[in-house]
Fold:
Amino acid sequence: MSDKNRRIIAFLLLMVLTVLLFPCKGYAQDIKSAPFQIDFIDVGQGDAALVKCDGHYMLIDGGSASKSSLIYSYLKARSIRYIDVIIATHEHEDHVGGLPGALNYANVGAAFCSVTDSDSKAFRNSKKYLAAQGKSIYVPKAGDSFYLGSALVTILAPVVAGTGPNNNSIVLKIAYGGVSFLFAGDAEWEEENSIAGYGELLRSTVLKVGHHGGGSSTGYQFLKAVAPRYAVISVGAGNSYGHPDENTLSRLRDAGTQVLRTDLQGDIVCTTDGNNITFNVQRNANINTLANAGPGQNQNKSYLVPFGNSAQNNQASVPDRSVSDTRDNQVTR
Ligand SMILES: [Zn+2]
Structure:
């Protein structure tokens, strides 16, 4: 065989290998391999979640002012210099106080909050950093939606003016393939009840529990509608509010929801391919997160029979818990 023929055969082999290793796929097929991740950052008593999809970022709340430098460092360590959307679910300090840390490191595309003004120092400070980037606050309406990469973000609430900032929290749902996340802000029963009419739309794989697991949030009816397989409670250890409330924990237990908590487990990182879902935690992967759950209101669970059955049927597109993986720090059931 001549050198020329060898070169031609080598070239053809290379082409075949290239096609085998890098098959052409349409965007729809690529969605499952596209990276989607949510970091529930341990900010003590407060909320902060960093959502990543296809290289785009959304920060939902930023913890309290004392965590501003933590948020700055978190982004810096990951070289995240651009955040497509920042959402402050409401104006309370434990949600907006740390946002200056993010705005100090990263540029932001858009900023949402349930209000444009508040007389708290934390809110004014965040607004000042936004203004320095030439941005103002947009108050989204229920029904607004946008894409973060290939993930669909839908604003669910507020649908009516609620009582106080908590019940005016921005509540949103993120859908990525067959997996979905519902972020309840600090919504309490009043706001939960106001969106009960959404019905099936509330159903989500993961619930970011409202108001740090407080007792006046995460009611049975709401839980029944959301039917979350997993719940994340962002809460500070030994906080003065008694969060999470033992009754909320017992309701989650009754619903058969696996609970993860930042006070016990530190940073909680959730990844999904749109099908399987995996949680990695900083510490205490196998701790009993419901150890201080109260006796519950539905110990016979009769109330939850239809809920449990329909949840199984409707979440069939979410295959079984890949969290049974045995890596260190991975949550196992
Ligand atoms: Zn809060």
